[in-house]
């Protein structure tokens, strides 16, 4: 391998007669002037001897490169020649020397560049692309730590140097963005990241609207040495059942922002009424009934006042209610204006939240406890619910952590201990949409994006549409893992927000699933990685069509077995067979299900449908 063509102090072309270049591999240029230089292959091509001029004319390679190859003795007409564009990984002040010899490094030469942390200290996310050759001399602790997967062969060996992410440096370079279109491997990558965070016992909260984050089932075909038991490292909590909002903790401002976030706009009159009528420590019931009483009092002011004057005519409970209404009128009427309509609108909104199960007496207790145990907390619920809940939860956890850190730093009495933690969500563009679009969680995520580092609170935001994610937040994500991306608007944002080169950006639409560019202030350069196989799998990870063949074919087979003894079966008399078939199937089979099954067995040729004077009779073929 040799340097050919015109070079600069950053880039050069290399040509070889007998070795194909791999994209992203690291090579050593033995420069006579500068000594050994490390460079990365950023583009590869080859000349085929049978169509020698095809590439030459295509303009892919600089004419200078071709002339230089000729002058260095390459026979362009009769040889197959491999060509690569190299980019230096270090800075020099004069151009790379043409004619310099190029070689594959040995592991120790590139160890510092490729392995910033050992697997014991960082998150092992995958394998660095193009490192198959240098990996041969790796020490033991880097072997078999990132097994790979492909659909055809299943689990395959680690074929390169592992990529170990130095998560402790997030202290200086916080937050991670995971971008990639549908099917690009984003969810798979997120699972691997979560496994690694659990492995290091980093407390984290992940929102799971797709109900797919569960870590009990091992990935099929995993060798025993690679299996990991995460059962004690995570908890799954259902929003609205296990966790929710503890109403009595809310301030008037919280209630305003909660109602605004859950039901869109809130009028000034409604906001004013909430702030006037809400009292610190109110339960949902006490607040809702105060509003309802006030609305009723406003509806029929004169009657309430009259009844209050004649209170001795009323019985106990009713007397209390009337007295309360009269007091509300005296105290608040002027402050909130006279509209019962406004109050009813508040009641309706509160009622909806209550019906959805948003208010849970134990609030976020279970989440805080799990974080203290350094677990991963998976919170499940509908997207709507999670958005409403996330805005409250994230703010609350962040405040707790801030209060604790501030009390230490400012020498105030120490607040309750609260650990640093990571907030993770997919579909992040829904939680923090770009531009003027509002979402309940946007403000708090923005605050954490800008300030969270100081308190040890970090974000991992995954999205298919980086162009739709709030740009202040995007700019704060110090590490971006970019999977296959096809849309031009998203590629544009990625180019602006990462140091991906134009060659790398042009590869984005064609990246195979599971391959990504990691652009990070922590690594200092863009690294192409292949994400390792996850150690666990989602309960609904199987291909839906394979699932049809497997699970539903099994159902078919069971039914077939249950009815074969009873053949022939008369279609007019199906109900007579149902008890026996249901008994054999150990579940109730309906008339329609049996009729449908018989018909489909006749269609696939297993049964013969005979016409009789009483209708169809199914018999074995
Ligand atoms: N690291 C990987 N190694 C091997 N195969 C992978 C890897 N990541 C993803 N794949 C393959 O690609 C498929 C799609 O991946 P995944 O479900 O992660 O896509 P996605 O980007 O999350 O898509 P969506 O956003 O639609 O969920 C996986 O089922 C798997 O077969």
Describe the structure in your own words.
The structure is a single chain. This protein is α/β, with parallel strands linked by helices and 621 residues long. The protein folds into four domains: 2-105, no CATH class; 167-244 and 361-502, Rossmann fold, CATH 3.40.50.300; 247-355, no CATH class; 544-620, Arc Repressor Mutant, subunit A. Helix content is 38%, strand content 19%. It contains 20 helices and 22 strands. An eleven-stranded mixed sheet has the order 10-7-19-18-17-11-16-15-12-14-13. Strand 3 and strand 4 (35-47) form a beta hairpin. Helix 5 (252-263) packs antiparallel against helix 6 and helix 8 (301-309) packs across helix 9 (316-336). The longest helix is centred in the middle third of the chain and has 27 residues, at 383-409. The chain is flat, with a radius of gyration of 33 Å. The mean pLDDT is 87.
């Amino acid at each position: 391998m040799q340097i050919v063509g015109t070079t600069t102090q950053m880039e050069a072309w290399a040509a070889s007669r007998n070795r194909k270049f791999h994209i992203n591999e690291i090579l050593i240029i033995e420069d006579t002037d500068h000594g050994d230089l490390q460079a990365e292959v950023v583009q590869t091509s080859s000349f085929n001897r049978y169509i020698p001029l095809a590439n030459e004319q295509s303009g892919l390679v600089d004419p200078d490169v071709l002339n230089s190859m000729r002058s260095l003795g390459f026979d362009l007409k009769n040889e197959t020649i491999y060509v690569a564009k190299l980019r230096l990984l270090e800075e020099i002040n004069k151009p790379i020397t043409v004619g310099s010899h190029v070689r594959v490094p040995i592991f120790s030469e590139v160890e510092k560049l490729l392995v910033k942390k050992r697997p014991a200290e960082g998150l092992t996310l995958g394998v660095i692309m193009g490192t198959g050759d240098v990996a041969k001399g790796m020490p033991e602790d880097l072997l078999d730590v990132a097994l790979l997967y492909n659909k055809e062969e299943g689990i395959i060996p680690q074929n390169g140097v592992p990529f170990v992410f130095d998560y402790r440096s997030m202290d200086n370079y916080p937050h991670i963005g995971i971008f990639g279109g549908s099917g690009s491997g984003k969810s798979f990558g997120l699972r691997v990241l979560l496994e690694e965070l659990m492995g290091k016992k980093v407390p984290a909260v992940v929102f799971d609207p797709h109900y797919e984050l569960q870590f009990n089932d091992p990935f099929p075909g995993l060798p025993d040495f690679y299996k990991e038991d995460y059962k004690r490292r995570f908890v799954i909590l259902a929003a609205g059942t296990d966790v929710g909002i503890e109403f009595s903790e809310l301030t008037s401002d919280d209630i305003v922002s909660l109602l605004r976030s859950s039901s869109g706009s809130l009028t000034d009159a409604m906001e004013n009424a909430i702030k006037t009528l809400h009292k610190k420590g109110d339960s949902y019931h006490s607040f809702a009934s105060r509003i309802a009483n006030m609305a009723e009092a406003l509806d029929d002011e004169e009657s309430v006042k009259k009844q209050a004057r004649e209170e001795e005519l009323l019985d106990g409970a009713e007397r209390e209610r009337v007295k309360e209404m009269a007091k509300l009128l005296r105290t608040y009427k002027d402050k909130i204006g006279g509209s019962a309509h406004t109050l009813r609108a508040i009641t309706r909104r509160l009622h909806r939240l209550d019906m959805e199960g948003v208010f849970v007496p134990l609030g976020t207790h279970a989440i805080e406890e799990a974080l203290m145990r350094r677990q991963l907390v998976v919170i499940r619920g509908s997207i709507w619910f999670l958005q409403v809940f996330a805005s409250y939860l994230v703010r609350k956890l962040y405040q707790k952590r801030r209060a604790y850190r501030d009390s230490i730093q400012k020498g105030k009495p120490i607040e309750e201990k609260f650990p640093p933690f990571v907030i993770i969500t997919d579909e992040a563009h829904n939680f923090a949409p770009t531009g003027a679009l509002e979402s309940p969680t946007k403000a708090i995520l923005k605050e954490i994006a800008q300030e969270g580092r100081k308190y040890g609170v970090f974000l991992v935001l995954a999205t298919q549409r980086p162009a739709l994610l709030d740009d202040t937040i995007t700019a704060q994500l110090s590490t971006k893992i970019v999977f296959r991306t096809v849309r031009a608007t998203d590629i544009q944002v990625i180019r602006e927000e990462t140091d991906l080169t134009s060659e790398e950006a042009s590869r984005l639409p064609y990246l195979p699933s599971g391959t990504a560019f990691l652009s990070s202030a922590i690594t200092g350069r863009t690294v192409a990685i292949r994400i390792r196989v996850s150690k666990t799998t989602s309960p609904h990870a199987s291909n839906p069509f394979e699932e049809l063949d497997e699970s539903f074919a099994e159902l078919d087979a069971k039914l077939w077995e249950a009815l074969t003894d009873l053949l022939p079966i008369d279609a007019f008399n199906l109900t007579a067979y149902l008890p026996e078939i249901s008994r054999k199937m150990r579940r109730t089979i309906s008339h329609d299900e049996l009729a449908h099954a018989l018909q489909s067995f006749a269609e696939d040729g297993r049964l013969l449908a005979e016409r009789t004077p009483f209708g169809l009779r199914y018999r074995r073929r």
